[in-house]
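Q: I'm a student working through a structural biology exercise. My instructor gave each of us a protein and asked us to get a predicted structure, then write a short paragraph describing it. Mine is Receptor-like serine/threonine-protein kinase. I'm not confident about reading structure output yet, so if you can add a plain explanation after the C-alpha cells, that would really help. Here is the sequence I was given:
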Amino acid sequence: MAATRGGRRRRLWSSSSFSCPPPFLVMLVIISCLLVAPSLAVDTVAVDRPLSGGQVLVSKGGKFALGFFQPDNSSQHWYMGIWYNKIPDTTKVWVANRQAPLSDPSTSHLTISRDGNLVLLDGRRATSPIWSTNVTGIAVKSTVGVILDTGNLVLADASNTSVVLWQSFDHFGDTWLPGGKLGRNKLTGEVTHLVAWKSYNDPSPGMFSLELDPDGSSQYVMSWNMSRQYWSSGNWTGGMFSKVPEMMASNADPVSLYTFDYVDRDNESYFYYDVKGEVVLTRFVVDVTGQLRFMTWVDSASTWVLFWSEPKSQCDVYSVCGAFGVCNADGSIPACGCLRGFTPRRTKEWLMGDHTAGCARNAALNCGGGGVSDRFFTMPNVNLPDGGLIVTAASGHDCEVACLGNCSCTAYSYNGSCSLWHGELISLRGSGGESSISIRLAASEFAGDGNTKKLVIGVTVAGVVVVAAVVAVFLLVRRRKLRTKALRRVEGSLTAFTYRDLQMVTRNFSEKLGGGAFGSVFKGTLPAAPDGTTTTPVAVKKLEGVRQGEKQFRAEVSTIGTIQHVNLIRLLGFCTEGATRRLLVYEQMPNGSLDRHLFDHGSSTRVLSWDTRYQIALGVARGLDYLHEKCRDCIIHCDIKPENILLDDTFAAKVADFGLAKLMGRDFSRVLTTMRGTVGYLAPEWITGTAITTKADVFSYGMMLFELVSGRRNVEQRQDGGVDFFPSTAARMLVDGDIKGAVDARLGGEADLGEVERACKVACWCVQDGEAVRPTMGMVVQVLEGLVDVNAPPTPRAFKVLGDQANYVKFFSALPSL
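A: Happy to help. First, here is the predicted structure for Receptor-like serine/threonine-protein kinase. I'll explain a few features afterward.
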C-alpha cells in the first residue's frame, strides 16, 4: 500500500513545475497530522489523560482494546470493557460496570481518582464513581491504568508499571484468558469466579458460574445461582481433571501449543493455562446457556470454533430453561421451550437467550374454587425434573387424584410408583427419556373438548376431506414433475432439486434420521421409474452453518457428485436457494451408522461379527484410497470416525458426510486449511497449525480401526475416576504377543486372531506421530487384503507416555482432544 501511494506521489511531482511540495499541500499534511495525533493509540490512563466518549486504549501489541461499548444498539446501556482488537468479531472479554450501565459515554470517563484508584465516573454523578478498583493506601497521583497485550487491565505504579496494585485478572467476568489464574487465595478467602452474562446482549451477572470447589477439593464446579452445583471437573490427578480427559496438560511435549497446570500452595490454589507464542487466540467462557466452553479463533473462517464444552449437553445444565421450561436436545443443539399452557415469563429476555425467568401459566388453576376441575396434559418420553416426591398410590388414577387433592401439586408421574411435584418444575427434558409426566393445567386449556367436541370433529373431518382432495391433485402434479426430472437425469450427473421438491420427497421433513454439527438428515422417497411403480429411499441433509458462497458450494458439490465408488456414499442431487436453503440428497443406508453398532449395547442393535468388522475396515480403506489417489482432485475427508461410516443392507461400509472435505489439486502435496474434524480423531498436525496431507485421514482411520476392534470408545472413564486409553492397551498387547484380549468381549472370542493382529498393527502404524511414517491408504488396503506383510510397528511416543496412567495427559499432541 505504501509503495502504491509513493508511486502516485512521484507521478504527481514529476508532472509539476515545483521542485518541492507546494505550500498548500504542506499545510494539508500539517493539518492532517494535527487531526490524527490526538487519536494515536495509547495504552495508559493517567490523572491528566482520562478515557471518555469514543476514545479507545489499545495495548502496545495491538491485541486488545479498552473503551466504551454498547452490547445492544436498541438500548441506552453503555459499558466499559475490553475486547479483541485485531479480529473482526469484537468479542468482549471483561466488563467493569456489569451491574451499573452508563447512559451517555460522552459525559462519562475512566480516570485515576484523587485516592489513586482507577474509577469510572458517570457525568451525572461525577463525585460518586459507579466502579472503582478500591485499593487502599495508595499515594496521591502515583498510579496509572494500563491495558496489557494479555487482555489484563492493571493499576500500576506510575514510575514502574511492573509493580501491579490491582488487575482485572483477579476479577474475571464470563471469560478466562491465557495467563489468568482461576482459584482461591487461602489467606484472604477471596475466590475468582467466571460468571455468565445474563443474555447475549446483557453483560450483567447471570445465573451460571464456575469456581474452585468451595469445599476445598481440587475440582472445579459449575453452579446455578451460586448454590446448586450441576457439574464438576473431578479432582486433579497430576496432569488432568478426572472427568475432563479433553483438558490435557502437555507441558512435556514441545509440539503442543498449550500449557495446563493446577497449582496448590500454602497461600493459594488455582488452575492456570497459557498459549505458547502468538499462534492462536483462545478463551474459556461460561456461556449464557450455562456451559463452560473452550474456544479458538480461526482467522481464515473469521469465527470462533468450539473445541469442547462441559457439560456435554446443555440440557444437563440445571434450570437452563427456567421454571416450567422444557429442554429439547435435538442432536447437538438444544432448544428451550415452554410447556403446554405456559408462555415465556419475560418475552424479550427469552428471545435474547436468557431463559432463566422461565415460563408462566396462561390460565390460573382452579384448586378448591368449585366449578370445573383442573386437568392434566401428559408428555411421554421425558426425563423427569428434579424435586419429585414419592407417595403411595396403587394406580395412575390414584396418583392423579393425589395430585388434584393438593393445591400446590403441579404435576405427577406414574411409572410403577407415584411421584408428585409441588411448585415449579425445574430441569425437565422433553426428548429421549423413558418416563412420562402429567402437567396440571386449568380446564380452559382443553377448550376443544367437552360439549363442542362432536361439532369440532365434524368440521375437522369435512375440512380434512377437502384438503386431502386438494393435496392429492397437488401431489399428482408434483410427482409427474419429479418423474420427468428423473427421466432427464444424465447418468453420473446430479439433479438440481427445488426446495419444494424436497419438501414433498421428505413429507415436509417429518421423519428425522439423525443429525450432526453441519445439519439434520431426513428420510425421503424418490420415484425410481417413470410410471412411479417403484421408489428409491433417500436421505436428505439440510446443511446448517455453511459459510461458503453459492458458486463455491456448487463447485464442491459437482466434484463430490462425480465420485463413483462402492465404498463411498453416492450423492444423487442437491438444492441451493439462497444462503439458508442448501440441501444434499444421498442414497439411504438402511443399517445406519457404524457407531450405533459399536457403542450402543442395547437390544435394538446387532453385534457385528468379526468378519463383518474386518470387511468394514477394508471397505473404508478402499474408499479413502479412492479419494486420495484415484479421483481427478485429491480429496481429504478430514472427519473419519464411526459416525461417518454408513452401512447398507448387507453391512457393507460407505464413507459419508463430506461436509468438512478439502479438495486438493494433484499439483500439491499438502494444503494449509482451517482446523476441522472431530476431537479424538485429529492428527497432531491439526493442532500444530502445519499444512496437512492425506496422512491426516490415515491417522483418523487408525483411531477408528482401534474402536472397530474393541467395540468401545478409545477413551473411557473408569469408575475409580481414572481413564482407559485403548490404543495404548492394544500396542502393549502387540508387544506381549497376546492380542486376544483386545477384541470386543461381545464376540465371545469368535475372531480370526491373525486378522486381529494385522488390524492392530495397521492401526498402530496409522497413528504414528510423524506423518511421513504413516502408510498410505493404498498400502493399508494391501496389508488388510493379506498381499503385504507388515512388521511390528514402533510404539508411538504418545502411547509410551500413556502406558503410565499418571502421564495420560501428555498424550495431548498425538490425540488432540482440546
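A: Here are two points you could use in your paragraph. The mean pLDDT is 78. The chain has six domains: 2-39, 43-169, 172-312, 325-447, 463-587, 594-813. It's a good idea to check both against the output above yourself.
Q: Great, thank you!
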